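Input record, target 12 of the design panel.
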């Protein structure tokens, strides 16, 4: 079952917190693929070569099919896992988080580490913002040139998302529709174009 929607990071950025004299820097970024996530992690590690730890977590796939986490030398399960849990609990997908820790001399204990690593990811999500992407079905409306302008205006005025326009012997207008909206949309299209438009269903996409 595919997710009907997911949340992702609005933009790349860094959020810093100080906990018991340790500095925690959470670097967050959207990542379309696992490779992008790994490249981001490598970049952050290079930027902080003297840090005590660079722990990471990422979730790729609308259904969270790829999940990875690393404690990077912290006690097992006290860093990467709570970071990952914060991402999945907030329904965040296609995102990578790296928490860079500069040790300040005070031991936090396992519970303190779990709260620190998970908490700083949550704070970073709040600080940088997230966007919700919903699942849509792509559909192509084919109309003749005479009706194309009116059909486009009608689509937009009814709040439908026009994704693409292609001009050929006819005009193809690609729209993104919620799956549940398809039957009503077919009826509306037949009515608004007096049955002259054809509708071809395509694949799926996620969009804001």
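The sequence produced for target 12 reads:
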């Amino acid at each position: 079952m595919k997710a009907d929607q997911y949340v992702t990071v609005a933009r790349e950025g860094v959020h810093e917190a100080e906990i018991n004299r340790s500095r925690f820097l959470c670097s967050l970024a959207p990542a379309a693929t696992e490779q992008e996530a790994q490249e981001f992690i490598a970049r952050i590690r290079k930027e902080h070569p003297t840090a005590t730890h660079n722990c990471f977590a990422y979730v790729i796939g609308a259904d969270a099919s790829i999940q990875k986490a690393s404690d990077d030398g912290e006690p097992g399960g006290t860093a990467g896992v709570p970071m990952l849990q914060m991402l999945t609990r907030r329904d965040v997908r296609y995102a990578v988080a790296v928490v860079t820790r500069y040790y300040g001399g005070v031991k936090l204990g396992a519970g303190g580490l779990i709260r620190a690593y998970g908490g700083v990811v949550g704070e970073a999500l709040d600080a940088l913002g997230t966007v919700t992407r919903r699942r849509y079905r792509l559909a192509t409306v084919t109309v003749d040139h005479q009706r194309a302008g009116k059909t486009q205006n009608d689509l937009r005025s009814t709040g439908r998302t026009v994704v693409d326009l292609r001009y050929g012997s006819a005009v193809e207008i690609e729209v993104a529709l919620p799956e549940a909206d398809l039957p009503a949309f077919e009826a509306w299209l037949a009515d608004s174009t007096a049955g002259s438009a054809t509708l071809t269903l395509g694949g799926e996409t996620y969009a804001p």
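The helical segments are 34-47, 80-89, 109-128, 145-157, 182-192.
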